[in-house]
Design goal:
137 residues; alpha+beta; Immunoglobulin-like; 2 domains; four-stranded antiparallel sheet; 1 helix; elongated
C-alpha cells in the first residue's frame, strides 16, 4: 500500500511540474502582454531610473525605463515615447517605441554634477510620474 501511495505522490508531483513548465513557457502567469482593449492611462503609466546616482563624467549611464499602460494596467505596444530633461543631460534612445509590455528605454549621461528631473510624453500627453536622478562629481 505504501508503494502505491508513493507512486501516486510521484505521479502528481510530475504532473504539477509539467503544468508549471507550461505556464512559464506560455507566459500566462508571469508576463503580461500588450493590450489593445482599454484606454491608455497616463496615470497608470510610469518611469523609473537605475541606478539613481552616477558620476558626471559623460561615461556612466543611467537607464530610464518607461512603461506605458492601459487603464487596466496592461502594456500598450507601439507607442512613441519622448524623454525630457535638463539641457545638461544627454539622453540616448535605446528603444523609442513601446514593446509588448509597454516598455521603452533611454540612457542618460551628464558631464555636469547635479540633481535632475526626467519626465516622459506620448502623443496623448505627459506621463504624470517623473523621476529624479543625481550625477556626482
Amino acid at each position: 500500500m505504501k508503494k502505491i501511495l508513493a507512486l501516486l505522490f510521484l505521479f502528481l508531483l510530475f504532473l504539477s511540474l509539467i503544468f508549471a513548465v507550461y505556464l512559464v513557457r506560455s507566459r500566462v502567469v508571469f508576463m503580461p502582454r500588450a493590450s489593445e482593449p482599454g484606454q491608455l492611462s497616463l496615470e497608470n503609466s510610469y518611469l523609473f531610473a537605475s541606478p539613481l546616482v552616477a558620476k558626471a563624467n559623460s561615461l556612466e549611464k543611467i537607464t530610464v525605463s518607461i512603461f506605458i499602460l492601459s487603464d487596466q494596467g496592461l502594456g500598450i505596444a507601439g507607442k512613441k515615447v519622448s524623454l525630457f530633461s535638463s539641457p545638461q543631460l544627454q539622453a540616448t534612445t535605446v528603444k523609442g517605441e513601446t514593446d509588448s509590455r509597454g516598455l521603452t528605454l533611454f540612457e542618460v549621461t551628464s558631464s555636469v554634477p547635479g540633481q535632475f528631473n526626467l519626465w516622459a510624453t506620448v502623443p496623448e500627453g505627459q506621463v504624470q510620474q517623473a523621476v529624479t536622478v543625481n550625477f556626482t562629481p
